[in-house]
Design a protein that fits this description.
The chain is mostly beta strands and 648 residues long.
């Protein structure tokens, strides 16, 4: 009945719709050479001068001309590399139904079966920071990094609103606003919130598993002569999770069953984790002369973590028998903060971009349970980057940094019309949490060696007519890897692990209105430290869908099936008190294909999604599937989402 009602409602809505706003291609202003960069900035300045004082401009049909083509955004990394690229607002439908962060990653994160829950990458990923980090990364995917955000250039006030109403009372809301104070100065604000009801054993309608409130401010300014640029942003996230600990296994409690969802028996009812983050970010540069600029980056980051559990309840059965601090209550507190200052010179010379810098990082980890409450660190880096754009299709680049006295990262990229190759060699520090941690249930003080990694990636661009093929291969060598073992204690592997990961991506048209997209990744791990990594041997995402305008080109529609699959493996389990995933050898997260039915459509500038999760529920030998030991995946339910733009 739900599926029939969905189709009827959708058809009715489409019949009533009209006036499709045609989608425009994304413009690219500026190139990798100095002349192109200067030309790009001149074009932008000329466009702004022409539009100054014309905010009420109307066309012949009395419609305002402001829209996605006049509201542009750019990224800091392109400003830093002298590659100003102005991008129109996204009105594409592709993957719009994958709205939440884990789905947006194309399911390359392992979570706890619900939006807002702890998550980690399925595949080994290189750290962005070779220096010390907090080590608490379970909620990184939900934080909006101010250094990677969009900065706007708007010709009129711009508002973007998006709402997601998930089945089972899983709701998200995102609102962004930006406007130009004058042609060279833009300001904006973002607000994001989520309220995600428990999918396992909710006590009432508003019994939330995850609650988040986040907001951000941002601004960008350039001087009248174009020599000075300033980008600034602040981001704050308060992410609270009412932990459930997973379903009590039937072998522990014979009355507990796995696939009863709202009636499931769970471990934790009185435990909560909170991750509060605040980050200030400033980038500014000044042009000293032709082909030479001075720049400075300032970051102030703070991450405050709390985990609380009342042990005079049944929650105590979930944890080990250690009670190092308090027999009745677990209250773990950790506060990590850092300052980062980077100063450098950059510019362009004969088609090559260059950059050299000095970076200072100062920070500390604080816990009331440390012998010395403040664990401070000071790090000094030197680094640089060189990029040569030989033509539109050929490019080489190299960058690296050295953390005095011993850590380093070297990275190189080669891009050609038929082959891309990327190589990274790094030696990075274990995290602060891995080195020193004191809580009610766990404590350690380690002096681990640095972790080494070599990674090479190669991608062949083998397009055949309308078929887009990308065979690729990733090779990893990792030594001294630090992980959490089956006893939930941090450990360092004594040997090396070697990963061989061939994969293929393919996109093709089937007829004029159907498309097939697929990605298959095979992973083989060998070496003494192979058991420290838990990655499925086979990983696949496939999408088959109808893609075409309908109703006299008034509505653009994508409708089809999303399928994903992971082969059986002993996936890492999750410990809420540590806020870490750890090894386990008893629970096999078995292979299970998942099919989602989706319908995305756009009317004017408004996009709407319908998604029916786990379409094949009840059709398989297994009753359902797991994403993490003792955490079941979604049951069948319907999601609805909508996104729209306002340009005045």
């Amino acid at each position: 009945m739900i599926r029939k009602a969905l189709l009827l409602c959708t058809l009715f809505f489409l019949i009533q719709s009209q006036d499709l706003f045609a989608q425009r291609p994304i413009p690219q202003v500026g190139t990798g050479n100095p002349a192109g960069a200067r030309q790009g900035r001149q074009l932008v300045e000329q466009e702004e001068q022409e539009t100054e004082g014309r905010r009420t401009l109307l066309d012949d049909s009395t419609k305002q001309v402001y829209g996605p083509k006049t509201t542009l955004y750019f990224y800091e990394k392109n400003i830093k590399r002298n590659r100003l690229q102005l991008i129109e607002q996204d009105t594409l439908l592709n993957n719009f139904h994958n709205y939440d962060p884990v789905a947006k990653s194309i399911w390359k994160y392992q979570d706890l079966g619900n939006i807002g829950s702890a998550a980690k990458p399925v595949f080994y990923t290189l750290p962005e920071q070779i220096g010390l980090t907090s080590g608490f990364h379970a909620y990184d995917i939900y934080f909006r990094d101010p250094s990677k955000r969009k900065f706007y250039d708007t010709k009129s006030p711009f508002t973007e609103m998006a709402a997601f109403f998930g089945g089972g009372n899983r709701n998200m809301l995102d609102v962004s606003f930006a406007r130009n104070i004058n042609p060279r100065w833009n300001v904006g604000i973002d607000f994001n919130t989520l309220r995600i009801r428990k999918t396992l054993n909710p006590a009432q309608r508003d019994d939330h598993m995850a609650v988040q409130n986040a907001y951000a401010f941002h601004t960008n300014y350039r001087s009248e002569n174009g020599k000075y640029w300033l980008l600034g942003a602040f981001s704050r996230m308060k992410h609270t999770v009412n932990e459930i600990g997973g379903i009590i296994p039937p072998e522990v409690d014979p009355n507990s069953l796995y696939f009863t969802y709202e009636d499931a028996k769970i471990w934790l009812q009185n435990s909560q984790a909170r991750d509060l983050r605040q980050e200030y970010h400033l980038y500014h540069e000044y042009k000293l002369g032709n082909g030479l600029q001075f720049y400075h980056i300032l970051d102030r980051k703070n991450q405050n973590l709390v985990f609380r559990s009342f042990l005079n309840t049944s929650d105590s059965l979930f944890f080990n028998k250690n009670r190092f601090i308090n027999p009745d209550t677990t209250l773990n507190r950790n506060d990590f903060a850092e300052w980062r200052n980077e100063v450098g010179l950059k510019g362009t010379f004969k088609g090559f971009y260059y950059n050299s810098y000095l970076k200072l990082r100062n920070g500390r980890m604080i816990s009331p349970y440390f012998t010395q409450p403040r664990q401070a660190f000071n790090e000094v880096f030197i680094g640089g980057e060189l990029i040569g754009k030989l033509s539109e299709k050929w490019e080489i680049s190299a960058d690296g940094e050295y953390l005095i006295p011993g850590n380093f990262r070297i990275h190189g990229v080669f891009i050609s019309p038929w082959l891309d190759v990327e190589y990274t060699k790094a030696l990075y520090k274990p995290t602060s949490m891995q080195q020193l941690f004191v809580s009610n249930h766990h404590r350690w003080d380690n002096d681990f060696a640095n972790i080494g990694v070599d990674q090479i990636k190669g991608t062949i661009k083998a397009d055949i007519k309308s078929i887009h093929l990308r065979p690729n291969l990733t090779l990893n060598r990792i030594n001294n890897y630090v992980y959490f073992n089956t006893e939930r204690k941090v450990a360092q592997a004594s040997g090396q692990a070697f990963m061989i990961m061939p994969a293929i991506e393919a996109k093709m048209n089937i007829g004029k209105k159907f498309r097939l997209e697929t990605e298959v990744i095979f992973t083989q791990i060998t070496g003494e430290a192979a058991d420290a990594f838990r990655i499925p041997t086979w990983f696949n995402n496939t999408k088959f869908y109808f893609d075409s305008p309908l109703f006299d080109n008034n509505v653009v529609v994508q409708m089809g099936i999303d399928a994903r699959f992971r082969s059986s493996y002993f996936a890492e389990a999750y410990d809420p008190s540590l806020q870490q995933f750890h090894l386990q050898n008893t629970f096999n997260v078995y292979a299970y294909p998942i099919f989602d039915l989706f319908l995305d459509f756009r009317i004017n500038r408004t996009r709407v999604l319908f998604k029916y999760n786990h379409l094949n529920a009840g059709m398989m030998v297994k009753e359902g599937y797991f994403v993490t030991p003792d955490y079941t995946g979604y049951r069948s339910f319907l999601d609805l989402g909508i996104s729209w733009y306002l340009f005045d």
